[in-house]
Amino acid sequence: MRNGIFKGHAVGNDYLVVDPAELGFRLTPDRVRLLCDRNRGVGSDGLLVVSTSRRADFGVRIFNPDGSEAERSGNGLRIFARFLHATGRTRRTAFRVETQAGAVGIRLSLDRHGDASQAAVEMGAASFAPDSLPCALGGDELIDRPIRVAGRALRFCGVSVGNPHCVLFRARGESWSVEELRELGPLLENHRIFPNRCNVQLAVPTGARSLFIRIWERGAGETAASGTSACAVACAAVRLGLVRSPVAIHSPGGVLRVRVGGAESTDLTLEGPVAEIMRGRLSPAFVRSLRQTRLRGSLAT
After folding, report:
1. What is the pLDDT of residue 293?
2. Which of 141, 121, 119 is nearest to 130 (CA)?
3. Alpha carbon separation from 160 to 8, 18, 77, 180, 247 (Å, rounded)
């Protein structure tokens, strides 16, 4: 479909999907921002772009709503897998997709309507090493390290699950407020020790195998859910002995399940519901407005 667009969500984390070969314009950071704008565009937490791959069955590039490129997105990958199945690009329920951070395996579960309403992603191994985020702090691992922000002395775990995360915990029975997320989120995302910025999670254990999290995504801000955030929090919580795997990660958008395994408890599998919202075509007038936006480089490969 010329200028076709697909939209889906995974526990409230929504993404658009486009194929550059079907677009009548080149993608640029400015045009990504306009497509993702909730008032002037289609609106979403990010854009998934069909790409080629020599190492996997399919390829995808992932863009934040500010136009920057993300290495990986757990929910984005699950939405992309539903897109591939729903649009007939594959009838398989198990395949591999290559991202900027490497290839991952995805398994779909079909409901009675034949829709891929559940998806599991093998997210690979997490890392607490400073170089993997990257982070300017020294040492072997970023486990329960001090950080100062907004005049407060806090402690965090730094986790890479293909993209960088800064996880802060409070004890069971305590909580993080939305106001704290909105204050700390942008400051931690842009903290000087994270040269590539980072995603931020404020987490609280709620049971032996469950946590509640609030999420501030790099390039997106406050979001209802995030697959890689769920993975980072689960991995850090298991490592600290706060919970046991598998872990139910509750967020304002819903529940995702993360299995943490392997010899070092860093191999991750993310699973949860995924839904299609719409398929359609960008209007000629909107395409003209996209073409009129400032052409500042191209995202196409």
Report:
1. 79
2. 141
3. 25, 27, 17, 23, 18
Which has the closest alpha carbon to 204: 224, 178, 176? 176
Number of neighbours of residue 136 by Cβ within 10 angstroms: 11
Residues, the chain: 301
Does residue 298 lie within any of the structural domains?
no
Please tell me the distance from the alpha carbon of residue 99 to that of residue 95, in angstroms, as a whole number. 13
Same domain, 167 and 201: yes
Q: DSSP letters of 136-194?
A: S--SS--SSEEEEETTEEEEEEEEESSSEEEEEE--TT----HHHHHHHHHHHHT-TT-
The candidate with the shortest Cα–Cα distance to 227, out of 51, 96, 70, 114, is 70
More confident site: 261 or 134: 134
Neighbours of 30 (CB within 10 A): 15
Task: Out of 13-17, 105-109, 213-217, 295-299, pick the least confident.
Answer: 295-299
In what helix (H) or strand (E) does residue 102 lie, and over which residues does it extend? strand 102-110
The residue range of the domain holding 214 is 130-265
CATH number, residue 249: 3.10.310.10
Q: Tally DSSP H helices, then E strands, for the chain.
A: 5, 18
Q: Are residues 137 and 77 in the same domain?
A: no
pTM for the structure as a whole: 0.92
Q: Indicate if the pLDDT at residue 39 is higher than 80.
A: yes
**Cβ atoms 99, 72 nearer than 8 A:** yes
